[in-house]
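Weekly sync notes, structure subgroup
Attendees: PM, AL, DS (notes)

Item 1: joint prediction request from the bench team. They want all three components modeled as one assembly rather than separately. Inputs as received:
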Amino acid sequence: MNTVLFLILFPVIVAILLLVLRQLAVRKFIVVASTIVLIVASIFLVVQYFNTGAVFFEFGSYAINLGIFIIEVILAAIIIFISIKHKQFLAALLMLIGAAATIWFEIAHGEEVHAANNLFVDNLSLIMTIIIGVIGGLIALFSLGYMEDYHHHHPNVKNRVPFFFFIVYVFLGAMFGVVFANNLMWLFFFWEITTFCSFFLIGYGRDEVAIKNAFNALKMNLLGGLGFSAAIIFLFTNANTIELNQLPGLASAVVLLPVALLSFAGMTKSAQMPFSSWLLGAMVAPTPVSALLHSSTMVKAGVYLIIRLSPVFAFVDGGALLGLFVSMVGAVTFLITAFMAISQTDAKRVLAYSTISNLGLIIVCAGIGSYQLVWAAIMIVIFHAVAKALLFLSVGTVEHNLGDRVIESMDGLITKMPVVAVGMVIGIAGMFLAPFGMLISKWAALEGLVTANPILTVFVAFGSAATLFFWTKWLGKIIMIKEKPAGFEAKIPTSEKFTLTTLAILTVVACLGFSLISKYSLEPFIFANYGNTYMLSQSNVAILVMMMAFVIVLPLSLLFHKDINYRPQYLAGTNTGEKEKFYGSLGLTREITLRSFYLSNIFGEEKLFKLGVISSILLIIIMFGVGM
Amino acid sequence: MSGINVWISVVLYIIFAPIAGGLIAGIDRIISARMQGRVGPPLLQPFYDVFKLMAKESIAVNRQQKLYVFCFLFFVIVTGAIFFAGGDLLLAIFALTLASIFLIIAAYSTFSPYAYIGAEREMLQVMAYEPMVILTVVGMFMVTKSFNVLDIASYSQPLLYTLPGIFLGFLFILTIKFRKSPFDISMSHHAHQEIVRGVITEFSGPELAMVEVAHWYENVFLLGIVCLFFASNWIIAIVLAIVVYLLEIYIDNNNSRLKWQHTLGSAWIVALILGVGNIAFLALR
Amino acid sequence: MSYMPKSPWLVHYDASSCNGCDIEVLACLTPLYDVERFGILNIGNPKHADIFVVTGSVNEQNKSVIKNIYDQMPNPKVVVAVGACASSGGVFRECYNVQGGVDNVIPVDVYVPGCAARPEAIIDGVVQALGVLEGKYKNMVKVAK
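Output from the run, pasted for the record:
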């Protein structure tokens, strides 16, 4: 239990230290040291609770609850103040309602509320711990070099790096809190802190767009937060419990509505369809923020909660219908955002849409909640976290070297910045290609959905096709062999290089070791919760591993095959003799430029967005209807 | 199937699939020629072509493209091996997708305008047929309750009776997969020259031979899936495959190529109506 | 005996032809002559081709193009100059902008006479080219050894 507390509190202490000690050298030391400590502590926790199953800790007292309450009120006051200052009255109103609900609940029931177990650890928490500890730590490390560059590239932005790191570390602590909390009020507390952190980080640039998007994110997440507090109040007044692990045991009359509300909160946090715009807007923030909050960790809090609720969908009377509509929201999101990603030219927006899309798929799986689908959902969480963090950070590095982050300007990245490009190839391959990580999960998802609800496989079929298209398009751009422009020299700070390499290696290791991850951490968890477990068949695993080995080993042949009979590209006979140049009309010498399909007539953002918003809102309304 | 039988069927597949595929290509060329009032090449012409290509000088725009083309061939063979060993159909489909991606990437890596357009169109084709392929597998699972090719093949009733919509939908995308008109937008076997040879523009000599052989393997695998629809009686299954292939040749010779919008649109509409319709029918039954 | 002559793929380039020879080249593909009987394909891509069929004379504009297409063909390869213009410059020989036959730019293996060259003559020329191709291939193998 000490490790659990340590993981929650240590980042907060580091955060305060970083806020106080503002010298660069000190910051560097603290960040490097704390990253090591975080990673070691996360691994230690895994070792400690590896085979124990779910372990619950009572740990808690009235004093702690009161402390949490006071911090919540103070934070709410700060947010209301900032909102009013920026004339964002809707945000202020939402916060006010939320705070009022919290205060009312505290006054009315504060002393009766008692959770038998406030904290707990099980295999899912452990997986999340590793994701937060290792990836979060690495991202903090990456930020060291990145933020210097960032201010170099954005001279107008006021340098508030200590504040940046303060928020990042507070956020890490809160994330640990989210995955360890069993008491819903504690969970809600950490949940709201992640909302506030993301608000501050999106608004880091303090320009008009950043502020607008930050408030947009805040509003949507506060709305979800309202759903969360409503769920707590309803649960406590009707079922007299506020413990997460009690939910599947409750009668359907009292549990369905709060679960619908919690799912709603999860959807806002995971930027599911009507709320997807906040995650897109969040892309104005510095890239490590995108990687940390908006792809690998914070948005995972939403799906984490829904995965936690999946036993309710699976086992409680009437839960299946509720779960089906939760799944439908995920399915619509998965499909529509995958389509929208096709029309995006900005690399970060592609990543954002693909993130939302994958979260949608996780929710599809968690909503049905069969053991096989939960297996798939958790697998997607793992692979998505590593690969996406890698991709986001790579895009950040590329952006600083090329001057923009448009996919079109990544032509021939492999010759310009080979190390980063190889990392990106690994990341992209990990996101959609057989035999790598995501595909294994998608496979399991497909298998699970066919038995559970074949109509949902239709969404997966079309969504995967679109996924294939936008990833391959990007992959092709990176992999082109193009002459390096004269004088181009990539500058990559050591901290960035280290992080990228580590993440790339982690992605490969996760892909290679998926069957071990499944065997030692997923299967016991799923067996404990669902009484049955999913396993890939031995022969399929063997084939997959063989395929992976080939994909990894074959490129090595390039090292031996050095000489080729070089002939330039076919350019209808008009090559000038210089590489990649041809005679255009009037005898002008032109360079080859290649532009991709974005199909905005078919997959245009606006049209699809409207369609998605309308259908998902309808589905959410039906979901609440089922909940009641 | 026991261990040793699996390996025998894999080895048989690796040896005989290209022979069968090459013969099919030869017959295809003769029939096409007859449909156009010509005599056509000898039956073994595709083999002559491939042997000639292997003897030619190997030239390339860069070193990487050879690797990717080799991976394309390799994973196409893996696809068929999984299929004919009676393995997981879904896994075979994924391996085939991986192979197609390698071909696309090989074209991309050359940084050649014609190969690039070919690659983009090839990607559109993949996007066009992928949903229907997955729905086909889903439909087969719904009937037979297994993803295993062996179980599907030994199902007591012909799948064609319960999956007519899916069969027709699969036929439709088969035109794309065989690279037949009207959907041969990324490359074609005829001399349409507005994008030169599309995806394969920059491959020559032995590399091109690998692409050709890969297509033979791929075609045999695809006809294998067609056979699955009538697997309970293997004679009828083979007749079905032959009829399907003749139909594709007929379609090929009676259509000019369409724009990519039509490829994508029609393939998805067919998948939605025939594929999803059939699945919905099975689910509600 | 190699497979070289059994599957000749050709790339056809119209240098500055009046289209007379071009039409006759394409006529070879029609049912009447059907050169696919011999495995001949008009492949349209130098990187796939074995035989380079040029019609028309060479001028400043297309000199580099002919050279480039020839260079892009993988060995072994042969060149067939079809028609009077391609062979020698023909009636345009004395024009201020015309340089003469194709052999001014690249080595030509077979000359097909005629204005326009008849399809029979073109097929005959291509078949002769196959002999040259085989010879070049043998030579290539010998050098490689």
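Discussion: Chain C has four helices and seven strands.
Action: AL to compare against the crosslinking data before next sync.
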